[in-house]
Design goal:
This is Putative salicylate carboxymethyltransferase. Keywords: Magnesium, Metal-binding, Methyltransferase, Transferase. It holds the Pfam family Methyltransf_7. Its EC number is 2.1.1.274. By secondary structure, the chain is α/β, with parallel strands linked by helices. It is globular and about 65 Å long. The relative contact order is 0.13. The protein has one domain: Vaccinia Virus protein VP39 (Rossmann fold, 3-Layer(aba) Sandwich), CATH 3.40.50. The strands form three sheets. The protein has an eight-stranded mixed sheet with strand order 1-8-7-6-9-10-12-11, sandwiched between helices.
């Protein structure tokens, strides 16, 4: 059993393990390894797959060091502003339940391993794990096969607020215990920090992998959108826009191919034969990169920045050097990468959009602005400073409401079910 597992415990932070000399010599870097004390040892696994920072990997490593959802439970936290993601998760909940039920019947594992990749720090991840656990309990009762162990691995970048998850575990354990039959299964949980664009787990270790609203985030801003002087070729836009030269869209697509293929290869090694994945992420309807869908929200963010430039809050040069590590793939682009992977069968690929009915007193624009801020705050504040955040996202909310009053905005989401063959 690898580091990272124990029965659920209340885990205060104890320490950090530095890079070992041999690992430095081999060109391997470890991410954090925390010992979390309670009645049992509770560890966060070190990530041993990422290369040491070099000039060529600088962009990628900066993303891994800086990017995270806003932690804690404050007004601008992801925990308080992830209702749109929850709506998407609720839309695919039946697919997750059906997939887990089929998986359990087909594999009847004694010890079942489940990973939530890109778990973030809000309540959504625990809600999904609870649904999976209840499904397994009901299914095991139907087929009269009871697993003795239920293993859950929470993964995200090292900058993620894992402590928020750990603090919620004691209460979460009480909920899970209500569904246990005769004390089975034993429940084990652990945190695995590190990029999922690479190996995280041993071979044939997992039965089910879940990832929600993560795979549209690239491992880095595509390096080929910069010239030899490190100046962006995409000036005036933070993502692919109607003014972007063709080389920009090509660079983003190439980076998606590189990242998604690596993700699929890595998970294929980690899944048992017959193991399954349910992946949910943002995309686009057709071949055109610029539409009134997910790309349009980035156009609105660019306009929000431009307002601040006109007011002297930020410099144009600063805006021109800001690019996002995002890509909305098409159905065909997704299918192509799965086919190339070879060892995974695409069992299901569906596209859906999210209901925009307003809830409460706030407008749709305000809801979207809060969600985008909780996601982008770390990157924006790192590049521009924290002072612009309030005015930036006030502008953003206003512009979204103005645009949606003129014509609807229709971002789409894909859900994939994959099986290892």
């Amino acid at each position: 059993m690898p580091l990272g597992m124990s029965q659920i415990s209340r885990p205060p932070l104890v320490g950090r393990k530095p890079l070992r000399k041999k690992e430095r010599q081999k060109g391997m870097a470890t991410s954090w390894k925390f010992a979390l004390k309670h009645d049992h040892n509770f560890f966060i696994k070190p990530e041993l797959e990422s290369p040491i920072l070099t000039k060529k990997t600088k962009k990628k490593m900066d993303v891994e060091k800086v990017f995270h959802m806003t932690g804690g439970v404050g007004k601008t936290s992801y925990a308080k502003n992830s209702s749109l993601q929850k709506k998407a998760s609720d839309k695919v909940k039946h697919i997750i339940i059906e997939t887990v039920e089929e998986l359990y019947i087909e594999t009847t594992p004694k010890s079942i391993g489940i990973a939530d990749l890109g778990c973030s720090s809000g309540p959504n991840t625990l809600s999904i794990i609870k649904d999976i656990f209840q499904t397994i309990q009901v299914t095991s009762h139907k087929i009269m096969h009871h697993s003795t162990e239920f293993r859950v691995y929470f993964n995200d970048l090292p900058t993620n607020d894992f402590n928020s998850i750990f603090k919620a575990l004691p209460e979460f354990q009480k909920l899970l215990n209500q569904d246990r039959k005769n004390g089975f299964p034993s429940i084990f949980m652990g945190g695995y920090p590190g990029s999922f664009y690479g190996r995280l787990f041993p071979n044939s270790y997992l039965h089910f992998v879940h990832s929600s609203h993560c795979l549209h985030w690239l491992s880095r801003v595509p390096p080929t959108i910069y010239d030899e002087q490190k100046r962006s070729l995409n000036k005036g836009c933070v993502y692919i826009c109607d003014k972007s030269p063709e080389v920009v869209s090509q660079a983003y697509y190439k980076q998606f191919q590189e990242d998604f293929s690596l993700f699929l290869r890595s998970r294929s090694e980690e899944l048992v034969v017959g193991g399954k994945m349910v992946l949910t992420f943002l995309g686009r309807r057709g071949p055109e990169h610029v539409d009134r869908g997910n790309s349009f929200f980035w156009e609105i963010l660019t306009r929000s920045f431009t307002i601040l430039v006109s007011q002297g809050e930020i410099e144009q040069e600063k805006l021109d050097s800001y690019d996002v590590h995002f890509y909305a793939p098409s159905r065909e682009e997704i299918e192509d990468e799965v086919m190339k992977a070879g060892s995974l069968k695409l069992e299901r690929l569906e596209m859906f959009d999210i209901d925009k009915k307003e809830q409460g007193r706030e407008s749709y624009g305000t809801d979207v602005a809060k969600a985008v801020r909780a996601i982008q705050e770390s990157m924006v504040s790192n590049h521009f400073g924290e002072k612009i955040l309030d005015s930036l996202f006030e502008n953003y909310a206003m512009l979204v409401d103005e645009e949606i009053a003129k014509e609807d905005i229709n971002p789409i989401t894909f859900v994939l079910v994959l099986r290892k063959i």
